[in-house]
Amino acid sequence: MSRTITRRGLLTAGAAAAGSTLFAGCDRLYEGLSMRPLLDFGQLTSLRAHRVLLAAQPLAREYTLADISPDFPPNGTEMPNGASYFELMISQFANWRFKVDGLVRNELSLSLDEIKKLPARTQVTQHSCDEGWSAIGQWTGVPLGHLLGMAGLAPEARYIVLHCLDEMEQGAFYYESIDLFDAFHPQTILAYGMNG
Length: 196
Known about the structure:
Blueprint: H1 7-22, H2 27-31, H3 36-54, H4 83-90, E1 98-100, E2 108-110, H5 112-116, E3 121-128, E4 134-143, H6 144-151, E5 159-169, E6 172-179, H7 180-183, E7 189-194
Antiparallel strand pairs: 1-2, 3-4, 4-7, 5-6
Helix pairs in contact: 1-3
């Protein structure tokens, strides 16, 4: 089935995206209770427009091994600061655990070896960084949906929040969130391997 994008539909989606972009990153405005409903509406409208436009499409184009970028910049920090990362590094990550908690029925705490024993997917996709660069790599990992299925999400769960060891400020670690549409997409993986 072919989905035709009309001029009217494109203008509507563009207006929704522009409206949400206008208010993106306005933390001070968002903190004011009077602006919160408007900002929430803009974010929801933008999300709905993206979902309509991408409903029948994969999230990312898949490439061939020949397309892998010769150079792949590190995303974030190559050597995070902080005692917790240093302790993991000197033990060769023997004590590292991937934790799934929050709105789940079964909290998970898995070692890297345990993760590698789960069903895996390998794909060659492009990484587009928020910093403005992109590169193509081959990724291997467990579909995030499989891990979330093991944990058993609560019905009220709407987003997945991922925390990392990149300390942005003292005690404040980088994190990112995705909605369940993206979390359960087969291309969304918890990658543990890159380029073999």
